[in-house]
Specification:
Length: 302
């Protein structure tokens, strides 16, 4: 028996007038109640109750054990009740990690709407262009592009995300339109530096065929939005996620280059640490994101 079980047993016995009454309440014989009570006293090294065949009375140590132990049991019961309730209704602090661009443009508005729906949840959105150690930094949900090799992390796909080649019409009017992936090597290409690695080798899919092209260019940045701004100004060809450039493709400010080609897909996933017994704040937010981006889980949805 655990210490909590012993404490609960003693509280019940102390509330009864006799061992017989305690045994009836617990579904035990009076000798069984007496043996368990004696074992508890041996473990604690003190006498808790004076007992006769007709009545029970608490010793000073027994009175203290009953009073303080009863309070402990009540606190434990309240804790378990609150934890069970947290599985039914989202509450508490929810920590979310994401990259700057997607976090500001898409996740920030989603968090605002979620917070309005669930006022008992406090949200902390941490934006960084470096991968976060979710366990070490206390992140409940991390938004990632593609699936890494993190052990112990679960994933739910939020949206499909193609990586497309694009450029401003002004650049293509000046430099011409490449007709094959290999011709990209003769164009100005805009680099995005991620995790201290410059992406000067673009891995593409030419239809179903994988192609790697070493490209060069005059400008590069570690910030995707800056790279998009440069593409809009006609500084070169950019390989960028569809979620970021879709509005400019619709407006005509950017146009697809080599439309039969795309970068290796980097679908958007919500990563989390637990598969089972998720708190309501996590499971509700995962469901909220899944519903919010439901229209984007097919190619071309942005």
């Amino acid at each position: 028996m655990s210490k909590a079980d012993d404490l609960a047993f003693f509280v019940i016995v102390a509330q009864q007038p006799s061992l017989a009454a305690a045994g009836q309440h617990l579904g035990l014989s009076p000798p069984a109640v007496s043996r368990r009570l004696a074992a508890l006293e041996r473990r604690l090294g003190v006498r808790l109750m004076n007992r006769t065949t007709r009545r029970l009375s608490l010793t000073p140590e027994g009175s203290r054990y009953l009073e303080e132990g009863g309070r402990i049991l009540a606190d434990l019961g309240q804790l378990e009740h609150e934890l069970a309730a947290s599985r039914q209704s989202p509450r508490g602090l929810l920590r979310i990690g994401a990259g700057f661009g997607f976090g500001r443009r898409h996740l920030g508005p989603a968090v605002a709407d979620f917070a309005a729906l669930y006022p008992a949840v406090d949200v902390r959105l941490h934006l960084s262009d470096r991968p976060l150690d979710m366990a070490a930094e206390g992140i409940d949900i991390g938004i990632r592009f593609g699936l890494g090799g993190d052990s112990g992390l679960m994933a739910r796909k939020i949206a499909s995300n193609r990586r497309l080649l694009c450029a401003a019409p002004s650049y293509l009017d000046k430099r011409g339109i490449p007709q094959s992936p290999q011709e990209l090597a003769h164009h100005d290409c805009i680099f995005i530096r991620e995790n201290d690695q410059t992406n000067n080798v673009w891995k593409l899919l030419d239809g179903p065929q994988p192609v790697s092209v070493k490209v060069g260019g005059r400008v590069g940045s570690n910030h995707g939005e800056v790279a998009v701004d440069w593409a809009l100004k006609g500084l070169g060809i950019l390989l960028r996620s569809e979620w970021d450039i879709a509005p400019y493709l619709r407006s005509g400010e950017l146009v697809r280059v080599l439309p039969h080609c795309s970068g290796v897909a980097a679908d958007i996933h919500a990563m989390f640490l637990e598969r089972h017994l998720l708190s309501a704040k996590v499971s509700f937010f995962l469901d909220f994101l899944t519903e919010r981006f439901a229209g984007y889980r097919r190619d071309g949805g942005w």
